[in-house]
Design goal:
Oligomer: single chain
Strand order of the largest sheet: 3-2-1-4-5-6
Helix content: 25-40%
Number of helices: 8
Largest sheet: 6 strands, parallel
Structural class: alpha/beta
Order of helices and strands: EHEHEHEHEHEEEHHEEEH
CATH architecture of the largest domain: 3-Layer(aba) Sandwich
CATH class of the largest domain: Alpha Beta
Strand content: 25-35%
Radius of gyration: 19 Å
CATH superfamily of the largest domain: NAD(P)-binding Rossmann-like Domain
Amino acid sequence: MKYIVVGLGSFGSALAVKLTEQGNEVIGIDTSMDKVESYKEKISHTICMDATDEFTVSGLPLKDTDMVVIAIGENRGANVMATALFKNMNVKKLVSRAIDSLHEKVLYAIGVHQIVHPEQESAERWAKKLCLKGILDSFELSEEFSIVEINVPTQFYGKTIKDINIRENFNLLILTTMSASEEKNLLGTSKQVFKVHGVADPNYVLHKEDILVVYGAKKDINRFVQSK
């Protein structure tokens, strides 16, 4: 089979080398020339390039590739952007690395086929929560922008996403919505589970149990939360 592995860190490089050793054709991609050079004898092909650049990515042999693995772990923003870009290129199968639960939900909303969690093996999970009531989880795309989970403010119960006009009023974008519910296992123990509704529908009616996954500048997110 033919693979493209984006990100030659500890996880991505180990995966690309292993796939090559098993007889697959692998293209390993990284922005670091040092990493590209160090693995050129162990991976079928290595390329130094920016996987978030549409023009560069369009030059890859995507139609002949069976699977693309986004293994970027150090930069969530680059991971999400690269994942979205390859998804838009309609690759046959797309797998992406998730660092935490919110990252995973965003990746599923984008439409990846499978999520991998290499950090779970070492019990490391990075997450930074904004110190404001109503924000459940967050991760930074950059120093200025974040993606956050927010409880639906009470004044928006029963309204559609279109009705709340969040883009015009707060300069924010709703990526998706989720519903929280309680589910019992075979032992009778309850746990909270989340249903992701996919790409946000402007006609979706918001309910008390819903959670918004919002993208935008931190100052605008804070302004939205404080408006409650």
